[in-house]
Amino acid sequence: MYNIRYGLSYLRHRFLANNRHGIHSPFVYKLIDTVIYDYTSQKVYRDIKEICRKQHSDKSVINTLPLKFYRLLYRFAVYFKPQTVLLADTEDYISAFVIKQANPEVQSISSATSGIRKADMILADALKQNAASFLEKVMPSVHDDTVVIFANIHRNAATKQSWEQLKLNQQVRATIDLYFIGMVFFKPGMSKEDFKVRY
Fold this sequence. Notes:
The protein is α/β, with parallel strands linked by helices. 40% of the residues lie in helices and 15% in strands. It has helices at 2-16, 26-36, 44-55, 67-80, 93-102, 131-138, 157-166, and strands at residues 84-87, 108-110, 121-125, 147-151, 174-177, 181-185, 193-196. A hairpin with a 3-residue loop joins strand 5 and strand 6. Helix 3 (44-55) packs antiparallel against helix 5, helix 4 packs across helix 5 (93-102) and helix 6 packs across helix 7.
């Protein structure tokens, strides 16, 4: 029953979501067109697949992130070139590996909010961190160009509710909902808008 509900929820998302042609924000359109919808094969994807296989041998674990998440994270890290990264999960070795592969010049990947004054990219799992509460906690580390990425924002009723609550934060300028992940932006000058994107 759980998987059926999750699947139906995903189908509803796809029905309501836009592709890049339904997006009027130049920033979001470019991100979708050049990063999210870039399906070009990369050599590093084989390495990512292997490390995912070793880390997650039990495929029945529901919070195991799909391989496409890490491929997308790689493209995000190439695109945004984060110098400082904050990981909410101290055991998130795969994301750290992916980011280092995408941007070898990254200066800091930390799981301690006190150790980073300003973070360019912040990653969290909505199953482990209440999205709205976590965002409030890390706001001192956020600057205008920070991107916050939450995984599993639609996994259950609690994660959906916290994602909706997060979108009400007045410091959030835009969100992108790809269903299995959500992205949060703070760029000044952007109209406050929430995008559902088909992926």
